[in-house]
């Protein structure tokens, strides 16, 4: 049977405001001792009144606009009623009939092509407290109670678990660029429920879905969905496809989903408008002010890096993954460009010089940044914000490589020293005497020595064992303390041994 998976996501993003959604308690309670960032409002005492946190609303609007949603001119907070120990009011303040925003989409990149994932809505709500289960008791920490959340509901637009994972990763990146959330799944700043059903390929109708809860990592989302596809496929093959909606939880240890209590229908929550909170009203002007203050978003940055700098898609993806890395890269490029222009100002206009050289410069900068510099950073476990190499010095380093003033092994040594001390690359090059040896007489002398000392290998080479060239270059390089230009050595050897 040819079955098609239909997947949708429901995502909660914790907004990183200073205070909570409806009271002035600190929103950093996760780093504080239990039950210390609380007040009568977020503890749900009777007679208290919530007040909307303007910063949380602004963050919600930013996120909604970045996701291309339509902001409702008026949105309404509603009470979602249910009983649970982590919810002392007996209801959660959320939004139901008039959410903050409707529609929207996010584009995910799949190799060379893009896929648009459509969204249903985005609304604001407060988080519940957190239960801690012990052997014989449950303790409640109210620090999280009242934390602002943005809930995003997607349309069932995903067809593979990998797409769902890509979407979540792109959403995390977006939230970080907007500075509305760290969106760390492991810390629960980004939480995701996935729903999935299957249908015979070609059919338009949707079948009852199964919701999967407790997905705490990107990997878990992908694995749980993959597991469900094979479980539900089996049910279809056996003629027992799910006939009602169900809820399952992901068991990380067993790597499988397990059945949970049946999900309440929305009717069970007895939603109604919260009489304590006025509607949120947005003027066109207020929305467009926020819209025009949005930063450049990841996908726009990727496209610009390709267009402006001639960077490769693969490099661009890694560069944009961390905004600080993207900024560093751009600063280095701009320094490199000034240098190129100063160096070649007789050869044309600045645009012409740039057009001729940008690809080569970009490739060097991205290459050294993403491989060698990242390697050094990873070994120390630090991010680009903490390194001692300024983008200016990094660009200068690249110009040494660009001009072949140093060969690649000398360049590695220089970069390592820059990383350790933050020193200037030209300075290190001179201090350590690492300037590439280019002078023909010196190179020829070393080549002659190697040829004289290895008559057997020379004879083999001349009989056709050409890979020996590498061996000769290695010996000459050693003779010259690793500073020679390897291409030139190769040329001289080929010439002398002909
Ligand atoms: Zn409070
Ligand atoms: Mn929710």
Poorly predicted segments: none
Radius of gyration, Cα only, in angstroms? 30 Å
Number of domains: 3
Distance between the termini: 67 Å
State the shape: elongated
- Percentage of residues in strands: 15-25%
**Which ligands accompany this protein?**
zinc ion, manganese (II) ion
Count of helices?
A: 15
The computed structural class is: alpha+beta
* Average pLDDT over all residues: 94
Helix content: 40-55%
User: What composes the largest sheet?
Assistant: 10 strands, mixed
Total number of strands: 17
Fold and architecture overview:
Residues 238-265 are annotated as: Disordered. The structure is a single chain. With 498 residues, the chain is α+β, with helices and mostly antiparallel strands. It folds into three domains: 3-292, no CATH class; 298-431, no CATH class; 440-496, Orthogonal Bundle (Arc Repressor Mutant, subunit A), CATH 1.10.10. 42% of the residues lie in helices and 19% in strands. The protein has helices at 54-66, 161-178, 218-237, 284-292, 298-309, 313-320, 323-343, 350-380, 391-402, 408-421, 425-431, 440-453, 455-462, 468-479, 486-496, and strands spanning 3-14, 70-71, 74-75, 77-81, 91-95, 101-102, 105-110, 113-126, 130-133, 138-141, 148-154, 190-200, 210-215, 246-251, 256-259, 272-273, 280-281. The strands form four sheets. Strands 1, 2, 6, 7, 8, 11, 12, 13, 14 and 15 form a ten-stranded mixed beta sheet that branches. A hairpin with a 4-residue loop joins strand 14 and strand 15 (256-259). Helix 2 (161-178) runs antiparallel to helix 3, helix 7 (323-343) packs across helix 8 and helix 7 crosses helix 9. The model has no long low-confidence stretch (mean pLDDT 94). It binds zinc ion (ZN) and manganese (II) ion (MN). Residues 12, 125, 151 line the site of manganese (II) ion (MN).
